[in-house]
Structure formats: structure tokens, C-alpha cells
Design goal:
This protein is an alpha/beta fold. The chain folds into two domains: 2-134 and 331-478, FAD/NAD(P)-binding domain (3-Layer(bba) Sandwich), CATH 3.50.50; 143-207 and 238-326, FAD/NAD(P)-binding domain (3-Layer(bba) Sandwich). It is built from 15 helices and 21 strands. It has helices at 9-20, 38-41, 73-86, 176-186, 210-218, 220-236, 238-242, 245-262, 266-271, 289-293, 349-353, 386-406, 416-430, 434-437, 459-465; strands at residues 2-5, 26-30, 93-95, 99-105, 110-115, 118-122, 124-127, 149-152, 166-170, 189-193, 200-201, 284-285, 298-301, 307-308, 312-314, 318-320, 323-326, 341-342, 371-373, 409-414, 474-478. The strands form six sheets. A five-stranded parallel β-sheet has the order 3-2-1-7-19, with helices on one face. A five-stranded parallel β-sheet has the order 8-17-9-10-13, covered by helices on one side. Helix 12 packs parallel to helix 15. The longest helix is centred in the C-terminal third of the chain and has 21 residues, at 386-406. The radius of gyration is 23 Å and the shape is globular.
Length: 487
């Protein structure tokens, strides 16, 4: 049996491809009651993709019906549900079931899984819960004393009426710049607490005309051509992140011009001007965030938070708050699942990583045979669709299973020297990028400042490296004759 953990883009895409390859003995575990991953959990007002819609679908399940250049959350969630239906995934889904822990059984070359619905045994374990699945909430003195409503943006409480409320927003990342303009329109007052200002580019969102959507449906080749063009445009900006100073300067001027066009107040503009290079942190896109901050019922606070009381957020000043909303992102380089995966020598993934996740091609880890990570370490992207990277990993996984079946292998485990060499190479390439030289701390980095989230090359190079499974970098275990019915 193949077990996939997570029913977002990574998990569903992997399951679809495996079914297409003839792997019928597979299940997808999802602790929530529905599929969708990030696009199920993030339903905050204004939630939408910040990657062009044409790139935000599987290449093997194209969607010509996106209504806008940047698809809203409900359309993306609906697309994923349609993928489940169209590709016959329903019988393989195990919704409302959480993986509690998994341990490698070397004698049987299998993973023993403990789930909330009982034990499972898996030949292959695929962790596909994604890097943006565990909300990060900062530890603030007095937070437990807050008497009002409080939630993270990924756990939005839609039954709470914010009209007439004083809302405090902590965080100014990709989610916050989408929901703050929506809050500004309904709340009596919004106080935004900013630690570090983001660089923001124009969004330029617009509807996709019905005639064009119809043309995409009738002429799939045209849809593929438009998708390819968007991919090339996004990839063309990659050199600015990799150290091209001229291209980086062009991006800096564009972002600064956007800020000056939208914010007239010089004091507010100064607060919103980053002191690090464009791209060092994730570049955001918005046409309504800056104007929202300029409204009379919104205040931007840049002083650090010292504590929370029952009804205030205290910096040098006490700011009244009825509602506290965190837009503080997710646990990326310290994902909680790592402590529950035990490989050879009874070592957990958390112990192996020691706070600094790394894998070979972001996919396999020394000491953890037949374990595959989707959207694993150093597979993230700051400029294009992560789905491209996920599909590359799926290609690698599919070819690995072909090789295992052809050679009658029970297990494969990446060699330590191959993993170490690959990660040293990645860090050498990171050294000249804006993520290492841009003068900022970002969620791209681990606790020691090493970039463990992003791929430091054009994405087509990752696709090329994962096109075929490279068995020479792995130790193998041959299949044994089945003598025990339990195996």
C-alpha cells in the first residue's frame, strides 16, 4: 500500500498521477473533513492566489475556466474538488483521519503507521501536507489574558461580526495585505502592527473575459500556450533574485514607484519603506493595501509589542482592541510532523534535521527509506507557481516506483554522501542570491540563518534534475519472498 498524507495540491496531484500509473492500492489520509489544504483552511476575506491563475493548476488537469487573472480562494478549492471527482479519487480518500506517528520496520521494509482510525502498514509513505499548513502564532506576554476574540488568518471565524469593533492585526505578510483592506471597510477601527514592511508590487488583477475562457476550452493548445507564456514571464524575473544587480534595481524602482503613487503621506510612506533588498523577503502584490492604510480608521504601528492585556495591545502606547487577528504566517522550517516520523536507528526526522530541514532533491532523506516529501526542503519558490515544483517531484516519485518494480526492490534510501553533496551545492548557490545578501531575516531561513525553503536556481533546472530517478544515489533492499501472511 502507498499512503499519502495530506489532501491539498501536493497530495491530490500525487494521488492522481499514481492512479494514472496503475497504483490502485493507495490511500490519502486527511485530518480535516474535506480536501483542499491551504485553500480549504484559508477563507479569510479577500483570500486569493498571488500567482497568475493559468499557472495555478496541474498540467495534467488544466482549468480553462478561471474567472480572474488571480483566482479567488473559492474557485481554487472548487477546482481541487473537481480534480477529486474527475479522476476518481473518492474511494481512496480517508477524511477526518490524522496520522499520529509512523515508524520504519526494517525487517519488513514497511512503514508502520498509527492513525486516529487505527494502524496501517505502508510500502511507501508520502508526506504531502505542504509547507503552509501549520499556523505560526508568536509568543506574546499576556496573550492568554486577552478577553476579546482572537484567531489566526488561516482559522478565520466568519460567524463573528466585526462591525463596530476595534481590530488589531499582528503581521503584514501575504495574507494580511489581502484581508486588511476588507477589514477596513467593516470595522470601526483597524490597528496594524508591523514589524518589518514588505515590498509590494502592483497586482493588476482583472477578469478573464468569457470569450477567452471559451476559446481556451475549445482550443486547448492555445490555453497551453498562454500558460507557457506566463511561466516564461515569471521565470524571466528570476535573475533579479539570483544576483543580477541591474534587474534587481529595476524591481526596486518599480516597487518604490508603486508605494509613492499610492501613499501621499511622507510619514506613513517612511514607515512602509523596507530597508532590505527587494526579494529578500517574499515580494507581495496588492493594489488596495496601501490605500487601506491611508484611511482615517486605520493606524499603522511600527513600535514593538511589549505585552497584551485583556483589551489592549501595548507598545509604548496602549492600543484598544476588541479583536486580535494574527497574519503571522506558518511554520515552514520547523514543521511539527517531523517529530512523529521515526526512521532507521529509531531516530525521528526532527532529530535528524536538528532544526535545519534538508533532503536530497527536496524529496528523500537519509535514514528514512521509502519516505518521500512533497514540497520538501529547498523546493519553495518566490516568483512562480509551487505546483510546477510539486509536479517535478511527482515525476521523480513515479519513476522511482517504476524502477523499484522493475528491479524488484523493497526499499530505497538516499545515500548520506549524495544528500550532503546536494545540500552543500544548494547552499553554495544560495550564497550569491538576494535571500543571503539582501539584509533581512525571512521564513525562508532556519534558526541558524541558512535558506532551507527555496530553490536557488531557475525552476526548469529542478524539473531537469527530477525527470528520472537516479538509482546510483541510493542504497537498495531487495524484495523477500512472502512467507508471513501479515506482510
Amino acid at each position: 500500500m502507498i499512503v499519502i498524507v495530506g489532501a491539498g495540491f501536493a497530495g491530490l496531484g500525487t494521488a492522481i498521477r499514481l492512479l494514472q500509473e496503475g497504483h490502485r492500492d493507495l490511500v490519502v489520509l486527511e485530518q480535516a473533513d474535506d480536501v483542499g489544504g491551504t485553500w480549504r483552511d484559508n477563507t479569510y476575506p479577500g483570500c486569493a492566489c498571488d500567482i497568475p491563475s493559468l499557472l495555478y493548476s496541474f498540467s495534467f488537469a488544466p482549468n480553462p475556466d478561471w474567472s480572474r487573472r488571480y483566482a479567488p480562494q473559492h474557485e481554487i478549492e472548487r477546482y481541487l474538488r473537481r480534480c477529486v471527482r474527475d479522476h476518481g479519487l473518492e474511494p481512496h480518500l480517508r477524511l477526518g483521519i490524522a496520522l499520529q506517528d509512523a515508524s520504519w520496520d526494517a525487517r519488513r521494509s514497511r512503514w508502520n503507521l498509527r492513525t486516529s482510525a487505527g494502524p496501517l502498514s505502508a510500502r511507501v509513505l508520502i508526506m504531502a501536507q505542504g509547507p503552509l499548513s501549520e499556523p505560526a502564532v508568536p509568543t506574546l506576554p499576556g496573550l492568554d489574558d486577552f478577553a476579546g476574540w482572537t484567531w489566526h488568518s488561516a482559522r478565520w471565524q466568519h460567524d463573528r461580526d466585526l462591525r463596530g469593533k476595534h481590530v488589531a492585526v499582528i503581521g503584514t505578510g501575504a495574507s494580511a495585505i489581502q484581508f486588511v483592506p476588507q477589514l477596513q471597510r467593516v470595522a470601526e477601527r483597524v490597528t496594524v502592527f508591523q514589524r518589518t514592511p514588505p515590498w509590494i508590487m502592483p497586482r493588476g488583477d482583472r477578469p478573464i473575459p468569457a470569450w477567452r475562457r471559451g476559446l481556451y476550452r475549445q482550443v486547448p493548445a492555445l490555453h497551453r500556450l498562454a500558460r507557457g507564456w506566463d511561466y516564461l514571464i515569471r521565470e524571466a524575473g528570476m535573475p533579479a533574485l539570483l544576483g543580477n544587480r541591474s534587474l534587481a534595481a529595476l524591481g526596486h524602482r518599480q516597487a518604490l514607484a508603486h508605494l509613492h503613487r499610492q501613499v501621499a503621506d511622507p510619514e506613513l510612506r517612511a514607515k512602509l519603506t523596507p530597508d532590505y533588498e527587494v526579494g529578500c523577503k517574499r515580494i507581495l502584490i496588492s493594489d488596495d493595501y496601501y490605500p487601506a492604510l491611508a484611511q482615517p480608521n486605520v493606524e499603522l504601528v511600527t513600535d514593538p509589542i511589549s505585552r497584551i492585556t485583556a483589551d489592549t495591545v501595548v507598545t509604548g502606547t496602549a492600543h484598544p482592541a476588541d479583536v486580535l487577528i494574527f497574519g503571522t504566517g506558518f511554520r515552514v522550517t520547523d514543521a511539527g510532523f517531523a517529530q512523529h516520523i521515526t526512521g532507521v536507528d529509531r531516530q525521528t526526522l526532527e532529530q535528524a534535521w536538528k532544526g535545519s530541514p534538508q533532503a536530497y532533491l527536496g524529496t528523500t532523506v537519509t535514514g528514512f527509506p521509502n519516505l518521500f516529501l512533497m514540497a520538501g526542503p529547498n523546493t519553495g519558490v518566490g516568483h512562480t507557481s509551487l505546483i510546477y515544483m510539486i509536479e517535478s517531484q511527482i515525476n521523480y516519485l513515479v519513476d522511482c516506483l517504476r524502477v523499484m518494480d522493475r528491479r524488484e526492490l523493497a526499499a530505497v534510501e538516499v545515500r548520506a554522501e549524495s544528500q550532503d553533496f546536494f545540500n552543500a551545492e544548494v547552499q553554495r548557490r544560495v550564497a550569491g542570491t538576494v535571500w543571503a545578501t539582501g539584509g533581512c531575516a525571512a521564513w525562508y531561513q532556519d534558526a541558524d540563518g541558512r535558506v532551507r525553503a527555496l530553490w536557488p536556481e531557475p525552476t526548469w533546472r529542478f524539473r531537469a534534475r527530477t525527470r528520472a530517478f537516479d538509482l546510483a544515489h541510493y542504497t537498495t533492499t531487495a524484495r523477500r519472498p512472502v512467507t508471513d501472511p501479515a506482510t
